Recover the amino acids of this structure.
């Protein structure tokens, strides 16, 4: 009865019985008194009222008929239900006397009783009334097990009677009692919603049907309807069923602003993916489903496609300003419209062009009207840089700043998103969802929560669908996907990787000769990072390599890139001697005035998983070192365009030749590497080459000492082996060297000033030139062999 009264809008239509069919909101395009136009408008109004009265009368009468029929049927049904025991006995007696099968009749009646009792008693799920065996067979129990990442048979149901045993069981799976309770509440709520949605006769479902004639007393907005979608009536977007989670503050502020008698325009600002659309579409859904019966009753949330309106005006040769005035006029006078303009910064930028003209002047004419309600959206940066300065419109808006949801709220949002994929069974364990949220911040820097977590979740789901080795998506699945995507090992350490990490010094020494102390410090930092105990808010590792040229600083960096990232190609190398002037900051971070990207930020955006090598850092402009203070401490830097660039997936190595004279003197004094390092650091601080706070930001300040005689032999042997391997691979030519060749190369080629680099040049000038002549002369051919001796 309540539904029929509401659906036919009997009270609403009776109150507005003699109202016009629709309010006249035609945009007036004439000035002064026009008698002909006046009488024409008057006649149209009378006709409209007559039509409205006739239609409303028909709907009211239809509604009253349905209302009375429902009342009579309800009375009859109630009387039958009350007298059901008597009817049941009478039917049984008559069935026996008339030869009718009493079992069939009684079975039918019992079925009616069962259905009625199920409807009355089975509307709410109550676990407290279930026995353990009943709970074990229930679908909710299976889904809870799925969230725990286990099968039904692996959950010992008896532990539910012992709080301590349950806590130990969950702790072994890194889940708290509170999280377990939350998982249960989620699954009960989900199943309860499914049960409630199936009962179309339930009041909560019936009131979702939009009543007849609720819009008849408001304006007939022909032009607005052409360019706007009525979200309060139909929403075909991905946000149609969006549920607002963890946005109580923003929701209350938005409602307060929109229900004011004036100053009732809201500006929702926040980065893309933070939930601006969800907030607006949630309001529309509440109106659409009858959950906003107060101030927003009969309100239309109209999503305006301003680009299409402007495009049509251009194509049809119309004045853009007049076209927009016509639309805004209808929105203001309709009486129940809340206009929504997304990305309004495209139209308020101050630089008018054909595609996106500046509509601020047109908009300013309507914002002062109390009946013109508008929700606009933009990002924080664009609002402050483009819109906030335009006081003629900014003063009419109240700001709603959207912050990121918490991690627990993000998990709830992800569960909501998974509804359409988890209809048959649970796909993501709770720990997997928690891990997605945690790890998404490190691998998707610029997108805020919840969007970055949702993006990663969907990528992992697609990966799992094609590579599903497990029953559920688990933390292992996420780490497999990220390892494949980034090229860097993630998650649990396998046996092969464990062996390599524990013997990392030996692996690095295959590429770096000597420098045991330096290699050991680097290896220890990498083990901390890979084990997960390092600070996740900083780069993977950061080191300052001190020492003379040609002692292995760059080779160590290359070896590190190869071991950790899998290839030397993952090196981003900057020669800091090129950045010695004040304009160097713009060259590194970019310039918004010149609309020019910076070298540093561009390369890191293109190679987020890399080793950043800063050669000769001491030669850089002093202010550049202050930039790296933030990078080393917080793991990010903001470029010239306001974008945060993520360095948390990088290893940062800075090299310096500072203090060459001190190194030479200390080596002659046979000082230890640690003494030399301390002397260089003291000298660099005293001479203001480096600030103390800059040095303290590194995980390690490591000194590379000059190479000894045995280490020089190792360097030469390594270089010759590389040359032999390269020639064999590229030319299929083998080379043999006499043992005394190595000492000859050191004797004739080594220059202490240039270190190992002098040996490289000597090998190129002698050995490689000799082999090149052999190849060109035809003495060395493919499949042949060359022997080199003194």
């Amino acid at each position: 009865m309540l539904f029929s009264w509401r659906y036919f809008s009997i009270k609403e239509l009776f109150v507005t019985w003699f109202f016009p069919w629709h309010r006249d909101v035609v945009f007036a395009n004439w000035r002064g008194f026009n008698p002909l136009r006046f009488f024409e408008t008057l006649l149209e109004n009378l006709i409209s009222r007559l039509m409205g009265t006739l239609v409303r009368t028909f709907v009211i009468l239809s509604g009253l008929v349905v209302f009375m029929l429902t009342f009579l049927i309800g009375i009859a049904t109630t009387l039958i239900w009350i007298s059901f025991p008597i009817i049941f006995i009478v039917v049984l007696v008559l069935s026996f006397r008339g030869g009718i099968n009493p079992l069939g009749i009684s079975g039918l009646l019992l079925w009616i009783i069962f259905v009625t009792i199920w409807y009355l008693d089975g509307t709410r799920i109550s676990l407290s009334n279930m026995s353990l065996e009943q709970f074990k067979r229930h679908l909710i129990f299976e889904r809870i097990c799925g969230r725990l990442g286990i099968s039904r048979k692996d959950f010992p149901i008896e532990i539910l009677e012992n709080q301590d045993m349950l806590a130990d069981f969950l702790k072994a799976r890194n889940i708290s009692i509170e999280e377990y309770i939350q998982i249960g509440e989620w699954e009960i709520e989900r199943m309860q919603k499914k049960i409630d949605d199936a009962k179309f006769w339930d009041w909560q479902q019936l009131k979702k049907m939009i009543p007849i004639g609720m819009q008849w007393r408001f304006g007939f907005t022909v032009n607005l309807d052409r360019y706007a979608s009525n979200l309060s009536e139909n929403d075909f977007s991905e946000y149609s069923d969006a549920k607002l989670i963890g946005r109580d503050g923003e929701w209350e502020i938005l409602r307060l602003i929109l229900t004011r008698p004036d100053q009732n325009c809201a500006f929702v600002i926040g980065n893309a993916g933070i939930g601006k659309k969800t907030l607006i579409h949630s309001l529309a859904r509440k109106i659409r489903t009858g959950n906003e019966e107060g101030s927003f009753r009969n309100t239309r949330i109209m999503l305006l496609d301003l680009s299409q309106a402007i495009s049509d005006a251009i194509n049809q040769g119309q004045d853009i300003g007049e076209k927009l005035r016509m639309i805004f006029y209808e929105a203001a006078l309709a009486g129940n419209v809340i206009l929504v303009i997304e990305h309004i910064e495209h139209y308020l930028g101050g630089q008018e062009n054909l595609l996106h003209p500046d509509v601020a002047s047109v908009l300013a004419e309507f914002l002062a009207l109390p009946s013109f309600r508008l929700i606009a959206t933009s990002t924080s940066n664009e609002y402050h840089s483009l819109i906030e300065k335009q006081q003629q419109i900014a003063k009419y808006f109240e700001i709603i700043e959207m912050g990121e949801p918490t991690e627990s709220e993000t998990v709830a949002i992800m569960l909501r998103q998974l509804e359409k994929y988890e209809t048959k069974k649970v796909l993501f364990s709770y720990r997997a969802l928690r891990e997605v949220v945690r790890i998404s911040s490190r691998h998707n820097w610029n997108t805020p929560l919840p969007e970055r977590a949702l993006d990663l979740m969907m990528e992992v789901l697609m990966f799992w669908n094609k590579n599903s080795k497990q029953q559920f998506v688990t933390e292992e699945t996420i780490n497999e996907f990220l390892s494949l995507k980034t090229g860097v090992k993630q998650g649990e350490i396998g046996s092969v990787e464990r062996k390599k990490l524990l013997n990392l010094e030996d692996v690095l020494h295959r590429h770096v000769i000597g420098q045991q102390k330096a290699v050991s410090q680097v290896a220890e930092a990498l083990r901390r990072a890979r084990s997960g105990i390092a600070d996740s808010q900083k780069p993977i590792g950061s080191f300052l390599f001190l020492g003379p040229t040609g002692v292995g600083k760059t080779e160590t960096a290359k070896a590190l890139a190869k071991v950790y990232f899998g290839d030397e190609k993952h090196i981003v190398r900057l020669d800091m001697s090129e950045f010695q002037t004040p304009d160097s900051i713009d060259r590194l971070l970019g310039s918004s005035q010149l609309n020019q990207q910076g070298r540093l930020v561009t390369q890191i955006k293109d190679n987020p998983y890399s080793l950043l090598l800063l050669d000769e850092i001491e030669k850089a402009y002093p202010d550049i070192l202050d930039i790296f203070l933030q990078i080393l401490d917080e793991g990010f830097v903001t470029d010239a365009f306001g974008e945060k660039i993520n360095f948390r997936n990088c290893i940062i190595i800075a090299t310096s030749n500072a203090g060459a004279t001190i190194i030479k003197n200390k080596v002659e004094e046979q000082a230890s590497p640690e003494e030399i390092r301390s002397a260089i650091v003291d000298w660099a601080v005293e001479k203001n080459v480096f600030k103390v706070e800059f040095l303290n930001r590194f995980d390690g300040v490591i000194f590379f000492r000059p190479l000894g005689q045995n280490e020089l032999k190792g360097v030469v042997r390594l270089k010759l082996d590389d040359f032999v391997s390269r020639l064999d691979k590229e030319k299929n030519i083998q080379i043999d060297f006499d043992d005394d060749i190595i000492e000859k190369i050191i004797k004739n080629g080594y220059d202490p000033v240039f270190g190992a680099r002098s040996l490289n040049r000597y090998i190129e000038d002698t050995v490689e030139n000799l082999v090149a002549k052999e190849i060109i002369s035809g003495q060395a051919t493919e499949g042949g062999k060359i022997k080199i001796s003194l």
Notes: The CA atoms of residues 595 and 641 lie 9 Å apart.
